[in-house]
Amino acid sequence: MLAGFFRSRWQGQAPLDRLFWRDMLFAGTAINITSSALALVLLGLKLPLWLVLAAHFLLVPYNIFLTLAVWRTAERTGGAKASLMMLGSALWLIATVVL
């Protein structure tokens, strides 16, 4: 089932609206907030910095995957809305890595 999730997003089979709004912005952001909160807790517990950074940056590959999936699907879809979603996904990726 998990492989099907990734495959459908990568192959552009998931609707662009679902991929952008639900998968990336809502679920992805919630997962990233949780990961950042965990990193802050680990930092507060004075655990090794490498562990804190690992917790914080653990989701970067997933975030890159979601952004690329949005771009691939948006390129197939075309139009102004798809272009805005491509821009939004790039800004979202930057925000998730920096914050």
Jot down its keywords.
single chain; 99 residues; mainly alpha; 0% strand
Structural features, described:
The chain is mostly helical and about 100 residues long. It has one domain. It is built from 5 helices and no strands. Helix 2 packs antiparallel against helix 4 and helix 2 runs parallel beside helix 5. The termini are far apart. The model has no long low-confidence stretch (mean pLDDT about 95).
Write the layout of secondary structure elements.
Blueprint (H helix, E strand, L loop, with lengths): L1 H9 L5 H29 L4 H9 L2 H18 L2 H19 L1
Gross morphology: elongated
List low-confidence stretches.
Answer: none
Work out the count of structural domains. 1
Order of helices and strands: HHHHH
- SS summary, helix count: 5
Summary, kept brief:
By secondary structure, the chain is mainly α.
